[in-house]
Amino acid sequence: MSNPPESSKQEHPSTYFVQDRTNLEELERVTVQDQMITASMGGILPEQADPSAYRRVLDVACGSGGWVIEAAQTYPTMTLIGIDVSKRMVDYAREQAEKAQVADRVEFHVMDALRMLEFPNNYFDLVNMRCSGSFMRTWDWPKMLSEMLRIARPQAVIRVTEPEIEHQNNSPALTQFFAMFQCAMFQSGHLFENNTTGIIDHLARLLTQHGCQQVQTRSYALEYRTGTPAGQAYYNDCKYVLRNLKAFIQKWGCISGDYEAICKQALEEMQQDTFHSTWNLRTAWGYKSR
Ligand SMILES: C[S@@+](CC[C@H](N)C(=O)[O-])C[C@H]1O[C@@H](n2cnc3c(N)ncnc32)[C@H](O)[C@@H]1O
């Protein structure tokens, strides 16, 4: 695919919950979270009957490229494109694809998915998007889904995965943080209602309303406990989240109490032997008509 030079593209103001696109820690966080989610969900496309049937795949807002690279490693007949608005993410993803020796079947491009998806009509067999509620406002969904359908081939799969806002956990301070985060997500227009489940209950409706057929869903409950490798990855993810979402939460007037003290207490509580957390995610997928 030939795309306009990346330097010629203008950037929209960021709607992403980490406002600074050059933030190095966010690259680390997205990398940790990507591996954590894929592993806990049971792989790249756990609910799809025959993923090897998809020859051309797009991942919208691909972050550090982990999902794309693992898909290329798992399915040798797949060619994949990942797009992300952050040049830092895209540069890192390209390096990782080289290291994983899949660069011949994988491309990454800097692209603002909220403008348009710069691909031809009827091009992909599967269009994937995960954790994009982080930058999509409620009013962005119709255009995004219509773009995903436009570039998908007839009968191709449109697949969206989103997490709940609040994780069910036994740390009072972490719960306080999630309440502030939920407030900011609602005030900024990312949520349809001010509730803890976020947008996951809307996914099937959105896909159906905006033209996908035979929409199905699968829910995942990701469990994290102190003292396990998954629990450690979860701790690291939360550590970055607590630090890097402060500007976003502040911008939308949702800080309540002493933010730094709440974060410190949350990290302490997460290190207790008894700490556990459940993070619910849902995948919704449907098909483009013939
Ligand atoms: C929470 S991360 C998810 C990354 C990856 N999809 C995953 O599930 O691991 C969200 C990603 O969206 C990207 N992003 C934010 N705004 C965007 C936009 N307007 N267009 C494309 N990507 C965007 C961010 O740079 C970040 O890499």
Question: What does the secondary structure layout of this molecule look like, with pairings?
Answer:
Layout: H1 24-41, E1 56-60, H2 66-74, E2 79-84, H3 87-99, E3 106-110, E4 124-130, H4 141-151, E5 152-163, E6 168-169, H5 172-187, H6 203-209, E7 213-225, H7 229-244, H8 246-251, H9 259-270, E8 276-287
Parallel strand pairs: 1-2, 1-4, 2-3, 4-5
Antiparallel strand pairs: 5-8, 6-8, 7-8
Helix pairs in contact: 1-7, 5-9
The site of S-adenosylmethionine has 19 residues, from helix 1.
Organism: Ktedonosporobacter rubrisoli
InterPro entries: Methyltransf_25, SAM-dependent_MTases_sf
Keywords: Methyltransferase, Transferase
Examine the secondary-structure arrangement and name the CATH architecture. 3-Layer(aba) Sandwich
**How many β-strand runs?**
8
Unique bound compounds: S-adenosylmethionine
User: In which range does the helix fraction lie?
Assistant: 25-40%
Predict the CATH topology. Answer: Rossmann fold
Class by SSE composition: alpha/beta
| CATH C-level | Alpha Beta
Mean pLDDT: 93
- Regions with little confidence, pLDDT below 50 for 5+ residues: none
Organism: Ktedonosporobacter rubrisoli
GO molecular function: methyltransferase activity
Keywords: Methyltransferase, Transferase
Protein name: Class I SAM-dependent methyltransferase
